[in-house]
């Protein structure tokens, strides 16, 4: 999403795709608009931890019909952050405007985002419209990886992105249960392409849609890799020329054939590693980080799950599985801690009934935590694509 107030080709002022004519600027107003743009460049972006001057963020400042128009374009989905940005923009701008030639002007702000695509080599045709593929992985089972993957996908969609979700856990597909789509079978187009199953605004695919409920996937490594390749490359993720901003892939635990197959078949934008603070889980999480590094996949960050349990009766909080492990891995391997999630019954209950936390309780603290993790992970992809480019500033 991106609209410029000053079109470089026509010179017309545009806002949200509607054309306007510039009102005549009061004396001294151009200098004031430039001061505003300089001030805005120093504002801090929470997801990246950087100021706008250090990012490839478009900063647009204009004036029209008694209104100062401000627009900022970021490289990750951020729809929920517009009110926060608007308040901070107003706080930054009003001291400059007050008493100046534009002191009586209204201030109008819009937040936009443009999601870059990860550059890669040749990919199968059904994946060509997918901008970014993100693996959600863990070194061992039982750490909440699938729950994190589902809520991460839903959180990105809630921020305004178009999102797909692939259940690559061939041996234990859980996505249909978590999304409430058990018993659904994907349609087939032209006898060769699966159509994704729509669930809560996501395009989804899982081997669980193709097997009966009681049929186990008893396969050797090559068969499992072949099954993953089929549901990955024979699913019509993008139709009629549309694009998918993110395809989240819920990986099986461990570091085996499935992980290598995905790295070979698709150019990954990055991986999110899920762990608990428990020492044993941390050891396995480190193996996951090392594996992705060996196949040249950037690790976007660590999610520390089950970090804290709060008693529903007395309110006492306790780090049941220890503390600080995820942060230590992030520091040791030069990546970030994307967020911590509690050991909470609501998370488990939501996925059991097909309504993950982001859908069931969108305003809860848990859903807000998933949203923050989603924005930070997406922001890391943006930084990888644009690091060092600097902001683009337009004043007019």
UniProtKB/TrEMBL annotation:
Location of the region described as Disordered in the Swiss-Prot/TrEMBL record: 1-27
Top-rank taxon, per record: Bacteria
Residues reported to bind ATP: 139-146
Entries under Gene3D superfamilies matching the protein: P-loop containing nucleotide triphosphate hydrolases
Keyword Iron part of the UniProt annotation: yes
Annotated keywords: ATP-binding, Hydrolase, Iron, Iron-sulfur, Metal-binding, Nucleotide-binding
Compositionally biased residues, Polar residues: 1-13
Keyword field contains Lipid biosynthesis: no
Function text: Binds and transfers iron-sulfur (Fe-S) clusters to target apoproteins. Can hydrolyze ATP.
Summary of subunit composition and partner proteins: Homodimer.
Family indicated by similarity: Belongs to the Mrp/NBP35 ATP-binding proteins family.
Name the UniProt record assigns to this protein: Iron-sulfur cluster carrier protein
Species per Swiss-Prot/TrEMBL record: Microbulbifer aestuariivivens
